[in-house]
């Protein structure tokens, strides 16, 4: 595995760093103070479009061999970061999250719904749902909805049901904590044809905004990460065309619905882990700066804990990059994806916790960036599967833990 970033990605990360200092962190602090997401018509999102953000990784070509993840990067000197490898996306996500992870998730683009559409969608579905993100004329969003009020990390337990009715499917159920769902052009929703079938009954649908029966959107109040919307919504006899079923009937006949969801998570878990690394870096830098200002570095215990966090952050980043490298080369990465997700949020929380200890009563005032990071970072152990779930996944793969 190559550990260096290509020149195009390095330039892009540097651009994100400049944007982060000038725009992203101030916006994150403002959203936290106001307690609400950045409005979809905010001028910041227009600025992002002008600098090339908010676009899809899909190339617009229907040949699977042309997709970024399908070919060896060593054979692709022309690979661009704007289309990019998974590792390039991780580097950008880490840097954005260093400045504010809530703002990073609020950015326009197809979001977590993109990997399943690229991996499972028909040529027509890619054209319909991803083509508008190749060169969007305005900020637009996609959304991904798996989590339900009674089904979080155990995605096999989803209760949203779907049934075939002529040339339509009818969905009933509720979803929660779907990022940017109320402002999205479409939402990728997971449902089941039979709750008793577990994972074998899973089906994925792309539901366009405005579809009758899709509604009751509610943006949740959160402890942290307030810059983006975490939305709950319902589907009440929501009728979608048959061609909104992601993939084809033959795809699900191979019992690939649940596998498609897991493959998506194996792509997005390293991404979330990289975001945690960025947040951990921010907490570390702020804690180190405070320790220097208050002359705390003379304490060997403080120095030892800071150095431990620095080492663990580097390890976490390499775990993320390893999982992404495997994905880019179309190799199994389920263990590495879970490793990155289990490790990175834990070290990020350790960094923020140490910062709060060093701050003392200063942190209790709620005015320091570390206090915000302490609230923000807790979610990272939950989204895309808790740390406990990641350890179960690893155990099943490494020591054949019984299901």
Structure description:
- The protein has 403 residues and is α+β, with helices and mostly antiparallel strands.
- The protein has three domains: 7-111, no CATH class; 142-253, Beta Barrel (Butyryl-CoA Dehydrogenase, subunit A, domain 2), CATH 2.40.110; 257-398, Butyryl-CoA Dehydrogenase, subunit A, domain 3 (Up-down Bundle), CATH 1.20.140.10.
- Helices cover 48% and strands 13% of the residues.
- It contains twelve helices and seven strands.
- The chain has helices spanning 7-34, 43-50, 86-106, 114-120, 123-130, 249-253, 257-293, 300-328, 334-359, 361-364, 369-377, 387-398; strands at residues 142-145, 161-165, 168-179, 186-192, 202-208, 214-219, 230-241.
- The strands form two sheets. A four-stranded antiparallel sheet has the order 2-3-7-6, with no helix packed on it. It has a three-stranded mixed sheet with strand order 1-4-5, with helices on one face.
- A hairpin with a 2-residue loop joins strand 2 (161-165) and strand 3 (168-179).
- The radius of gyration is 21 Å and the shape is globular.
- The two termini are 32 Å apart.
- 49% of the residues are buried.
